[in-house]
Amino acid sequence: MVDETSIFIGASRKPDDSYQRAEEVLLRYGNRHGLVTGATGTGKTVSLQILAEGFSNAGVPVFCADIKGDLSGISMMGEAKDFLVKRAGEVKLDPYQFQEFPVIFWDLFGEQGHPIRATISEMGPLLLSRLMNLTEAQEGVMNIAFRIADEEGLLLLDLKDLQALLANIADRADELSARYGNVTRPSVGAIQRTLLVLESQGAANFFGEPALRIADIMRTTRDGRGAISVLAADKLMMNPRLYATFLLWLMSELFEELPEVGDLDQPKLVFFFDEAHLLFEDAPKVLIDRVEQVVRLIRSKGVGVYFVTQNPLDTPEKVLAQLGNRVQHALRAYTPREQQAVRTAADTFRPNPDFDCATAITQLATGEALVSMLEDKGVPAMVQRTLIRPPSSRLGPITPDERRKIIAGSPVTGQYDQVVDRESAFEILQKKAKEAQDAEAQAQQQNSGGSRWTIPGFDDVLGSGNRRSSNRQTVAEAAIKSVVRSVGSSVGRAIVRGILGSLARGR
Ligand SMILES: Nc1ncnc2c1ncn2[C@@H]1O[C@H](COP(=O)(O)OP(=O)(O)OP(=O)(O)O)[C@@H](O)[C@H]1O
Ligand SMILES: [Mg+2]
């Protein structure tokens, strides 16, 4: 039932519960964002799944996080289970066809999907400070650190680059304070300690190269379907701040990299933000304002953002106001706060005289929702009580074996699997320190001869432009790196992205 211009999502019901009409997302309003809410087990993930299926079939690439692993089934053909076939009948989905979707699995830890990375400079000081939960004073130091890195040409790629830069800043605290304002050793020390914590939580995997190329999440298949990028997020959710910061970074990268396109027949990418409340939980106002701004502006780049969350109260009002396509599953209403959430959710809909919205929200069955999509001229439709269609792909998780096969056959296989560690702040600062040391040693021990180390074959790989003045400590290290580096392909690009690519630069 998917046609050229819309995605079928289910059938609304009349007051006597008989079939009323098909409910659809209009693709031309797919970039006007959306919201899927509901209590645990009410059908949010399945709604996300059928939306992702619909966008993919329409040729729109999708990015989504898989919090519990149950969204991975979208990569496999569905099966004709009784309750699914029954639901298909109820919503007049005929024929009910099964399908597997073109999925690319990603994982910040590189375990359940291709590793996904960003560089420190791409992340920028604002998001990093948020990630590390820094105080205002510490954030000030972080800003200065980025400025120094820019001015002194120090590339910040991974955590050890930032560590090295901070150590260097601590050494020069007095000089730098005079130049940039307050850089105290205790605040630098505090940031360094937070970095260690971050590292122990596995974030070291995430920072570095090769960084994610946005083009790789915007792929389509030869038969014209949009790739569905599924981010494994079960382990990631143990560090909710990393999860939220990462998705925010990705959204801002999309915003920075994609050209202005205005209104299109269909989105260029749809981005599902599951557990969206984590984005806003004790976030400083500046950050919420930035998110609001990005969500508002990213629309004209052809990107639709769909928030998925349990409670509509979790999302700031300014953001909520921009989410045009709504699917509200059941909410509980036992406590006053829950009752408040139900009223808020009900109030956001264009009322339907046939039923009371607030009452309906508490009565919805599993896989049933109040639905209001944008209609003609982008006006929200009158809210309808809607049975959501069953998915065409598998409901529930895939096996580790199935996952391995899909990862092996993915179009980005080999592109991200190896870390590339090229010369950046860490190496440069280390070299500088070493040079200072060497100069001193040389002064003491004149003309001892042969101050330069050489490694056979070393120059062949590195090329003369990259020749380092080697030193004892990094000989073995450098030899390993030179091999890895020759695998990397995106050297120049990453530098450009480093300069332009982050929310924090105030563009
Ligand atoms: N549209 C639907 N058609 C058929 N069955 C559905 C549909 N939606 C939900 N279900 C059934 O309800 C179950 C729970 O749905 P789902 O996993 O989407 O809930 P959820 O809101 O994501 O829960 P949680 O908050 O725990 O993640 C599904 O496994 C499925 O059996
Ligand atoms: Mg779910």
UniProtKB/TrEMBL annotation:
It comes from the Bacteria. Residues 13-505 form the Helicase HerA-like C-terminal domain. It holds the Pfam family HerA_C. Signal peptide: none annotated. This is DUF853 domain-containing protein. InterPro entries: HerA_C (IPR033186), P-loop_NTPase (IPR027417), T4SS_component (IPR051162). Residues 437-473 are annotated as: Disordered.
